[in-house]
Design goal:
This protein is about 45% helix and about 20% strand. It is an alpha/beta fold. Bound molecules: guanosine-5'-triphosphate and magnesium ion.
């Protein structure tokens, strides 16, 4: 096993930067590089110490002299009690790009190899410090920009998904071994595995996997921002509302109906959750080709949105607005979406009381009552409970869980139709294989390359 090194902090100017070394030669190489009072060997694991790094400067072919490159803090972790499970040395140096590069150059000259993408995390996985979903969660954790995304990644890192999978695997293994036993005694036509219990287990697995698959939609939305469409007739003030919510002039506003022709989007963090507001072209009958294309996009945006802010002129009645929504969305599946009705331009009306109480009334231009809109958006997330769910965020996990569900369904059908035991057993084996790939008990070069290749160097 090579000893690897890499800069673990981002390329940019910080007060300090950190360089990581991991592998069997980590201590030996660090000992040569670092001049530590009392010696590097004297440094206890899990302790940090002040050290000096010297650079060899060649004056001419015969003369070389040692020059201080940097004064650093060095931390030592002894295998197996380190992130990678190997001997690890972390060097915190000053943030200068020159110093960082020079230290890596010296390490390579002393026998380190530059780490590949995700190689530290991959080693942690191979040494059993993390399972695969946990290793993948590290990438999510590093990328998390909001409280909700952080929470989702942290749950995976703490083994939430892994624990759920381990329970499923245990149950499936039990079932598989009973079926295999029957196959061994196939001549005698005995049934070791209770068929009703098997069916119950398959139903349970399908439900558990189904719940996780459902959460994938939310998992990806949390990463990219929960899509909130701002729609309504032309000129009702959609772009004005977008700008007011973002507190900057993102979209063009004018009193000409049909100003916005394309969708305009921007992200916004509300109470720790990332949202993506999408301003759209006003919906109306139009003979203008470009405007019609824009309206098509509006309908598409409604299809993809989780939340719809339906903006109308506050002088309209509720019946008029409901008729408008019904006629525009008749071809759109609205289940799972929430439509919030927002009457705008209240500054122009004397009486805007809503007898039913669930319409919101605002003045986007004057910034009045915008908090009522934000409160409704927040309430939607709270009601869905997505801040507390175990969320599936990885495409890889989704594909494997889909496979597990399909195998469970086929096994179920096989049992119900009294198909031969070996066919049912084969489906269970396939489900077990997919589960193994998910948690990483089964892995190949290819799988690991696909996962860790997407990491940055230094992770
Ligand atoms: N009085 C008043 N005028 C408003 C309010 N909100 C928006 N307006 C005005 O209404 C006009 C249209 O506003 P926009 O935000 O461009 O409307 P839009 O819904 O994006 O229109 P399209 O892009 O054409 O679909 C502009 O002149 C705004 O200044 C409001 O709360 N009160
Ligand atoms: Mg507009």
């Amino acid at each position: 096993m090579n000893t690897i090194c890499a800069i673990a902090t981002p390329a940019g100017l910080g007060a300090t930067a950190m360089i990581r070394i991991s592998g069997p030669e980590a201590f030996g190489i660090a000992g040569k590089l670092l001049s530590v009072k009392s010696g590097f060997d004297g440094l206890e694991p899990n302790q940090a110490k002040f050290a000096t790094i010297y650079n060899i400067v060649k004056k001419d072919s015969d003369n070389e002299r040692h020059e201080i490159l940097d004064q650093v803090v060095v931390t030592k972790f002894a295998a197996p009690h380190s992130f990678t499970g190997e001997d690890v040395v972390e060097i915190s140096c000053h943030g200068s790009l020159y110093i960082q590069r020079k230290i890596v150059e010296l390490l390579v000259a002393m026998g380190c190899r530059m780490a590949g993408p995700g190689e530290f995390t991959q080693r942690a996985f191979l040494n059993g410090k993390l399972d695969l979903p946990q290793a993948e969660a590290i990438a999510d954790l590093i990328e998390a920009q909001t409280e909700t995304a952080h929470h989702a990644a942290m749950q995976h890192l703490q083994g939430d998904l892994s624990d759920k999978m381990a329970v499923l695997r245990e149950e499936l293994l039990k079932m598989a071994s009973l079926l295999e036993l029957e196959l061994d005694f196939s001549e005698e036509e005995v049934e070791f595995a209770d068929r009703t219990a098997l069916l119950d287990l398959l139903t349970h697995i399908k439900a558990e996997v189904g719940r996780l698959l459902q959460s994938y939609k939310w998992g990806t939305m949390l990463k990219n921002g929960i899509p909130v469409a701002i729609v309504g007739e032309p000129n009702v003030g959609k772009s004005t509302l977008l700008n007011a919510l973002l507190q900057r002039e993102r979209a063009i506003v004018s009193d000409i109906p049909g100003t916005t022709r394309d969708t305009i989007e921007d992200t916004f963090v509300l109470n720790g959750t990332l949202f993506r507001f999408i301003d759209t072209a006003g919906i109306r009958e139009s003979s203008d080709t470009v405007e019609r294309l824009g309206i098509e996009r509006t309908l598409d945006t409604i299809r993809r949105a989780a939340l719809i802010l339906w903006i109308f002129d506050a002088r309209k009645t509720r019946q008029e607005v409901e008729a408008e929504i019904a006629s525009t969305t008749d071809s759109i599946e609205l289940v799972d979406k929430k439509i919030i009705l927002v009457g705008n331009k209240t500054d122009l009306v004397a009486d805007k009381s809503d007898p039913s109480g669930d319409l919101l009334y605002i003045s986007a231009k004057k910034g009045e009552n915008l908090e009522s809109v934000l409160n409704e958006i927040d309430r939607f997330v709270r009601e869905k409970g997505i801040r507390d769910l175990t969320l599936l965020t990885s495409e890889r996990h989704q594909a494997l869980l889909n496979g597990i569900r399909a195998s469970a369904e086929r096994a179920e059908n096989g049992l119900k139709n009294q198909l031969p035991t070996d066919l049912v057993a084969e489906e269970i084996r396939m489900a077990l294989h997919d589960l193994g790939e998910l948690t990483g008990t089964i892995s190949s070069e290819d799988i690991l390359h696909n996962i860790f290749g997407k990491f940055c160097i230094g992770k």
